[in-house]
């Protein structure tokens, strides 16, 4: 499928790869996603392709866990239905070359994940075709696909333009990060509030209610259900002791921060984070975030990421790390 005509090297975390060593031509094949064993294969791939310095080229592990176990359940998709929206391209020896992933079927999102060892062999056009077949969504009466492309990825941007996609100028997604090479000044909680974790009290009903209130779907037809949180807790990388929350005097959960730990790369990722609107501006979000960061730092994390660029994170020491632009194309159905 892809013939290599010249020697190409790529540096990833000080590792150099000779892309043409012993290979003049290599066939890349498509493989349908099968949850067992592909979930862990993809999780391992995302860990292995993490870039220590510079822009992230792929998801970090929490997003993959969250999509497969929480969001899939929240959108009431069976594992078989959801699996059909995941595309895998690999070598004949079974090494992952590239992936099409999504967070939520029905929103038109698609994410390109690539193996830096094979950058000049990525089957981008075939990946676009797969996404255009599986992931187009009807949104406000329009049929749309909205790929996310890292700012500065000129190769993928060019292919998107050739296929009729237009970069949206009104919105972009921000990832922020902070290095854990300094001590933090941990805030004191208001009187009668206390910090706990799901390892201490695994009250899924209250935890789900807190999520729904924080994200504005409490009491709506889209209200997140306890079954979604039960599913999340079954994900391979979820840890109850890292699922931190604040309890109010009335014994309700009113703020929370779940941090995921990638022990291979020594990073923590905050997802999700939220506070009940009736309890905001009380320092609860800062308290839950810092407690989660403290816990994962004690496990060995050296850096924290969060998929957000709000002033709140900047105020506690985070810096904008990278941006993903949203591209969009309308389709006729």
Please give a quick description of this structure:
By secondary structure, this protein is α+β, with helices and mostly antiparallel strands.
Characterise the protein shown here.
By secondary structure, the protein is an alpha+beta fold. The chain folds into two domains: 2-173 and 326-331, Gcn5-related N-acetyltransferase (GNAT) (Aminopeptidase, 3-Layer(aba) Sandwich); 182-301, Gcn5-related N-acetyltransferase (GNAT) (Aminopeptidase, 3-Layer(aba) Sandwich). It is built from nine helices and 17 strands. The protein has helices at residues 35-48, 61-74, 79-83, 124-134, 154-162, 204-214, 226-232, 284-298, 311-315, and strands spanning 2-3, 9-12, 15-18, 25-26, 28-32, 87-91, 96-101, 109-114, 137-139, 142-150, 166-179, 194-197, 243-247, 253-262, 267-275, 303-306, 319-331. Strands 5, 6, 7, 8, 9, 10, 11, 12, 13, 14, 15, 16 and 17 form a 13-stranded mixed sheet that branches. The chain has a two-stranded antiparallel sheet with strand order 1-4. α8 (284-298) links the parallel β15 (267-275) and β16 (303-306). Residues 1-24 have low confidence and may be disordered.
């Amino acid at each position: 499928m892809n013939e290599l005509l010249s020697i190409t090297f790529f540096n990833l975390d000080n590792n150099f790869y000779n892309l043409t060593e012993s290979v003049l031509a290599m066939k890349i094949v498509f493989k349908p996603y099968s949850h067992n064993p592909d979930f862990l294969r993809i999780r391992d791939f995302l860990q292995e392709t993490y870039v220590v310095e510079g822009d992230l080229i792929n998801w970090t592990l929490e997003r993959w866990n969250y999509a497969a176990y929480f969001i899939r359940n929240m959108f009431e998709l069976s594992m078989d239905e959801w699996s059909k929206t995941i595309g895998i391209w690999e070598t004949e020896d079974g090494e992952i070359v590239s992936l099409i992933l999504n967070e939520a079927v029905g929103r038109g999102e698609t994410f390109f994940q690539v193996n830096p060892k094979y950058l000049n062999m990525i089957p981008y056009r075939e990946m676009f075709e797969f996404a255009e077949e599986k992931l187009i969504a009807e949104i406000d009466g329009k049929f749309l696909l909205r790929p996310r492309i890292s700012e500065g990825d000129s190769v993928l941007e060019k292919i998107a333009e050739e296929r009729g996609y237009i970069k949206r100028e009104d919105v972009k997604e921000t990832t922020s990060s902070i290095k854990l090479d300094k001590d933090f000044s941990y805030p004191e909680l208001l009187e009668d509030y206390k910090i706990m974790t799901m390892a201490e009290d695994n009250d899924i009903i209250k935890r789900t209610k807190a999520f729904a209130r924080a994200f504005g779907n409490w009491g709506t037809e889209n209200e997140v259900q306890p079954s979604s949180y039960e599913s999340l807790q079954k994900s391979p990388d979820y840890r109850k002791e890292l699922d931190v929350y604040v309890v109010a005097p009335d014994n309700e959960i009113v703020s929370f921060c779940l941090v995921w730990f990638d022990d291979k790369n020594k990073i923590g990722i905050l997802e999700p984070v939220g506070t009940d609107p009736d309890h905001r501006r009380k320092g609860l979000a800062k308290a839950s975030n810092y407690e989660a960061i403290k816990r994962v730092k004690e496990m060995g994390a050296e850096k924290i990421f969060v998929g957000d660029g709000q002033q709140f994170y900047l105020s506690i020491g985070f810096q904008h790390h990278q941006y993903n632009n949203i591209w969009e194309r309308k389709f006729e159905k």
